[in-house]
Amino acid sequence: MLRLDTRFLPDFPQAFKEHGPLLLQAREALLAKRKDPQSMLGWMDLPEDTETLRRIRRYREANPWVEDFVLLGIGGSALGPKALESAFNESGVRFHYVDHVEPEPVLRLLRGLDPRKTLVNAVSKSGATAETLAALLVFLNWLRENLGEDWRRHLVLTTDPRRGALRALAEKEGLEAFSIPDNVGGRFSVLSPVGLLPLAFAGMDLEALLMGARKANELALAPLEENLPLKTALLQHLHRHLPITVFMVYSERLKYLPAWFVQLHDESLGKRDGEGNRVGTTAVPALGPQDQHAQVQLFREGPLDKLIVLVVPERATEDLLLPQVEGLEGEAGYLFGKGLFQLLKAEAEATYQALAEAGQRVYTLYLSEVSPYAVGWLLQHLMWQTAFLGELWGVNAFDQPGVELVKRLTLTFLERPGYEF
Ligand SMILES: O=P(O)(O)OC[C@H]1O[C@H](O)[C@H](O)[C@@H](O)[C@@H]1O
Fold first, then answer.
1. Cα(77) to centroid(ligand 1), Å
2. Is ipTM strictly over 0.85?
3. Is 381 a catalytic residue?
């Protein structure tokens, strides 16, 4: 369950009423694009795709030998699975993410892995991302050298249904491969095999994850009053003059969720609108309570240039009572007998109030608990929010023309004769 709290933004209910027509128009414009196969709105349908889920389950069951799962992918091909796996890994399978090109950690990883117990999953929608291709070269070679003909069983690809280097490799070598639907872009792909395959190996309850996402879909299509994604989209829209939107999550298990949100928000919305104006707000990741001891000083007394979103669980799956320890009554007595989760909730509430009191604009999204259902709901909710904002800000939320130059320049530098920095 996901619940919005805007108690420190008293004008919001009125603003929501006034902006009703604008919001409905934005939703209509977005949904009208669904008919267009180029629209990249396939993420809306992923929670219904039970056939893919069945295939993934069968694959997982056929490979019980996996002890280490190495995911080669970057951006939208890594951030979602990482955010969910680190929260919900129940299986004991160890996960490793190669979403970088720093040699030392790759070498350290290779030296510590047993190839016979390792499954490598290369993930790339385009099949053309330099970091992922570089990692694939290394791991493919490593599997071949160590496993001989058996290497094929240890490599699974997640990529475009037809195009790109990964698809070509899968066909040439007869490798197991899962498809990211044509009309699903990287940062909207967490509920496709990009996320579902690794999460099946993590032992996560995928039915519940998708059920939560279906709930977000239901609300996005619901009448205005119940429409949670239109509400939070409007909160972001009303504060678009503030350059920063902080996404602060009060959950250690969800510590990688802010990074997923940052890509979703920044890469979708930071671009030129139809008139050439630069639009977008900068999402800043934060974690509670750790960042109370780092960023909150700035949030309290620094510039009032932020919209701050807190994501707070309402219940613990299991609390841990703090024992009374003799000799520590003076300093820690106020904690005796309290739950660790009680402390977490008190800290989140204290931050909420202190930020509002400082004049920062702040609202909270309460998660009933850190469960696959609630988090599935939250992820899909945030995708709807982003898509609605794309309409409100007049930008295409599903492309990323701005990142291309870096890719092209990287290739130019590598191909330059005598290249060395
Ligand atoms: O999945 P891939 O095609 O390898 O893309 C991985 C990432 O790289 C690109 O640079 C895009 O900007 C991201 O949106 C994408 O998630």
1. 7
2. yes
3. no
